[in-house]
Amino acid sequence: MRDSRPQLLDSLFDDASAEDKGPLHNVQQRAVALLKLNRAVKGLLPVQLHPWCRVANFRQGILVLETANASWMMRLRYEQPALLSALRAQILPSLSSIDIRINPALMAKGSNLVQNTAKTAGNTQPSAPMRHLSQESAEELRGLASRSPEKLRKILERLASLAGESANATSRDK
């Protein structure tokens, strides 16, 4: 059974420095193993998928991969049988299946990575124009919000308040 009682941070660090079997050592070993597995998986995937996919976990013979959105998930599903057989043959003979999940946070990280790669490669292509919500569209959303249930009304009003701002400058604090 797990010991889930609160512990002092000092004791965790003291245990970790005193011996190699402390709780933080176990966490570090798991993180290093997942990073190595992530590198191996990316080595087996096409280059286009690298910014949009990562290893999230490996537990009980199931490899969990995260991807940025549904379109990259479909692309990854096409690669799944080859990836499964290659991983079984090279690294993880106990691998039984691959679970693919969508993590929208990867979309922002992948976009930044692609833009930075393009800048370092010397591409001078203009980036995609930012999307804006017009005032007319905002008024239509407010009209729709007035006829909507409470939960949807709040969402539509928050969306309408973004009129004139770029799509990437949204705030989730509201």
What are the defining features of this structure?
2 domains; 174 residues; DciA-like; DUF721 domain-containing protein; GMP Synthetase, Chain A, domain 3; three-stranded mixed sheet; mainly alpha
User: How many DSSP helices?
Assistant: 6
The domain tally reads 2
N-to-C order of helices and strands: HHEEHEHHH
Structural class: mainly alpha
Biggest beta sheet attributes: 3 strands, mixed
Strand content: 5-15%
CATH architecture heading of the largest domain: 2-Layer Sandwich
Mean pLDDT: 82
Shape: extended
Task: Show unreliable segments.
Answer: 168-174
CATH fold descriptor of the largest domain = GMP Synthetase, Chain A, domain 3
Oligomer: single chain
> Can you say what the CATH homologous superfamily of the largest domain is?
DnaA, N-terminal domain
